[in-house]
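Researcher: Here's the sequence for the chain we discussed earlier.
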Amino acid sequence: MNKKEIRRVLDTMEDMFPDAHCELNHENPFELTIAVLLSAQCTDEMVNKVTVHLFKKYKTPQDYLNVPLSELESDIKKIGLFRNKAKNIRKLCEMIIEKYNGEVPKSHSELVELPGVGRKTANVVVSNAFGVPAIAVDTHVERVSKRLALANWKDSVLEVEKKLMKKIPEEEWTQTHHRLIFFGRYHCKAQNPSCDVCPLLDLCREGKKRMKKKI
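Model: Thanks. This is the structure I predict for it:
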């Protein structure tokens, strides 16, 4: 895909989803970190249903350590992998208190050292909480990027991230990340993408293949 085509993709997604944003409800960097940790293999919608109560009960890292592990597990049991996530939340809170004076660190390198926080989570936190340009590659971003040939089918998540960073202007990384997610979540869905009404169909190898099958 050449620069002109990439610009068209970015502008089209901006037109379609001008208000794309992080859909995980949060009021500060700490809540965002917990929410993103919980969102692994789980929908944002379910996370928000859980955190609406969770964030009223737990305000600080210490709050998560003041209750038994079993109680925290019970509070997030609707979330997939809740037992493992509860353990990581407690370890994360311990590290934030001991190493960072109770505050979520602002650098990517420090964030990825926190239990349960991978590269994607760190990218979401630095970009949304601290205004640092970043592209977090979740399932939607990966799927859309590969369908539109912004990345290769066999590319790893990290390879997809690097290619997007290379092709998209840095000042647009964060907003493009949100628009790619909205495009994948509400338009270019995994099972039933809206290929027949997609303004990017002529650029999409997956869409062309699907439309041929319909003929």
